[in-house]
């Protein structure tokens, strides 16, 4: 067993938000183990699930249930522990509390009462999937779980269509994965790439990228691919060129230069003269060239 750091017993009345493994029970930090063994109470989404993790690491701290159905009423109970100078660790079944999991209401209530809330970082399914996807984009947008009903799900997806140059990250349950992917294809088109990251850190971990149009076929090719919790990553796309807003003077200069110069040279000179976007100019020049054939 790993020797744990000494817990600072003199620091009391703190709510620790502790990230736990998303599958492999070894994926927990030394600091998290130290906190879990040192606090007076652990508030867990499910007591039985928590005991599996704690038993693995020889931790015998008292565990009480705090989940989505009792989170509101649990706030007062947790605050009473903190008022008595006892510290509490908040954990969920897997990953980081309050990230598409219970915990945010409790954290808010504790902070409003003036108590310290300390994050203990660790495993997160979305970040793990992103790190291994190979998708290239400067930004990502984490949505979490989409609505259960298809009509509402499609409305939410449609609202995300304008997020360009941004990877879209979703969580999904296995019994809804086919419906969700079908709605994504309807909303974003069949050519956009999607990465499936399922059963992360577990024995049957799978990370697969394909076009949305091929996704249903891939999922149905093996019954095992429909099992386990999913992270879905939609590849970023570039915004459409706004050619309709091209400066009329730039368009005129481009047309004149195209008569005597190559397309590339005409675009380059027009961009230098007018300051217009080169990609936008190139798209218009190419369109006019095709129309003239």
UniProtKB/TrEMBL annotation:
<dbReference type="Pfam" id="PF00590">
    <property type="entry name" value="TP_methylase"/>
</dbReference>
<comment type="function">
    <text>Catalyzes the 2'-O-methylation of the ribose of cytidine 1402 (C1402) in 16S rRNA.</text>
</comment>
<keyword id="KW-0963">Cytoplasm</keyword>
<dbReference type="InterPro" id="IPR014776">
    <property type="entry name" value="4pyrrole_Mease_sub2"/>
</dbReference>
<dbReference type="InterPro" id="IPR053910">
    <property type="entry name" value="RsmI_HTH"/>
</dbReference>
<dbReference type="GO" id="GO:0005737">
    <property type="term" value="C:cytoplasm"/>
</dbReference>
<dbReference type="GO" id="GO:0070677">
    <property type="term" value="F:rRNA (cytosine-2'-O-)-methyltransferase activity"/>
</dbReference>
<dbReference type="InterPro" id="IPR014777">
    <property type="entry name" value="4pyrrole_Mease_sub1"/>
</dbReference>
<feature type="domain" description="Tetrapyrrole methylase">
    <location>
        <begin position="15"/>
        <end position="214"/>
    </location>
</feature>
<dbReference type="InterPro" id="IPR008189">
    <property type="entry name" value="rRNA_ssu_MeTfrase_I"/>
</dbReference>
<keyword id="KW-0949">S-adenosyl-L-methionine</keyword>
<comment type="similarity">
    <text>Belongs to the methyltransferase superfamily. RsmI family.</text>
</comment>
<keyword id="KW-0698">rRNA processing</keyword>
<dbReference type="Pfam" id="PF23016">
    <property type="entry name" value="RsmI_C"/>
</dbReference>
<protein>
    <recommendedName>
        <fullName>Ribosomal RNA small subunit methyltransferase I</fullName>
        <ecNumber>2.1.1.198</ecNumber>
    </recommendedName>
</protein>
<dbReference type="InterPro" id="IPR035996">
    <property type="entry name" value="4pyrrol_Methylase_sf"/>
</dbReference>
<dbReference type="InterPro" id="IPR000878">
    <property type="entry name" value="4pyrrol_Mease"/>
</dbReference>
<keyword id="KW-0489">Methyltransferase</keyword>
<keyword id="KW-0808">Transferase</keyword>
<feature type="domain" description="RsmI HTH">
    <location>
        <begin position="247"/>
        <end position="288"/>
    </location>
</feature>
């Amino acid at each position: 067993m790993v020797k744990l750091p000494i817990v600072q017993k003199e620091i009391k009345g703190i709510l620790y938000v502790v990230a736990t493994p998303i599958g492999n029970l070894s994926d927990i930090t030394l600091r998290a183990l130290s906190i879990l063994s040192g606090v007076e109470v652990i508030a867990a989404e499910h007591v039985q699930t928590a005991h599996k993790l704690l038993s693995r690491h020889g931790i015998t701290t008292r565990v009480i249930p705090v989940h989505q159905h009792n989170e509101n009423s649990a706030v007062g109970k947790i605050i009473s522990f903190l008022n008595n100078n006892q510290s509490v660790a908040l954990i969920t079944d897997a990953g980081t509390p309050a990230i598409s999991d219970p915990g945010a209401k409790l954290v808010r209530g504790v902070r409003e009462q003036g108590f310290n809330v300390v994050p203990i970082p660790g495993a997160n399914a979305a970040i793990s999937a992103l790190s291994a996807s190979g998708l290239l984009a400067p930004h990502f947008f984490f949505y979490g779980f989409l609505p259960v009903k298809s009509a509402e799900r499609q409305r939410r997806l449609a609202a995300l269509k304008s997020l360009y140059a941004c990877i879209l990250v979703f969580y999904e349950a296995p019994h809804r994965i086919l419906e969700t992917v079908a709605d994504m294809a309807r909303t974003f088109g069949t050519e956009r790439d999607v990465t499936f990251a399922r059963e992360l850190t577990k024995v049957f971990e799978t990370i697969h990228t394909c076009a949305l149009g091929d996704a249903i076929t891939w999922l149905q090719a093996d019954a095992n691919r429909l099992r386990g919790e999913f992270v879905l990553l939609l590849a970023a796309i570039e915004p459409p060129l706004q050619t309709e807003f091209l400066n009329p003077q730039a368009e005129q200069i481009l047309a004149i230069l195209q008569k005597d110069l190559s397309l590339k040279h005409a675009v380059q000179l027009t961009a230098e003269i007018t300051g217009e976007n080169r990609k936008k100019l190139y798209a218009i020049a190419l369109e006019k060239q095709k129309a003239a054939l």
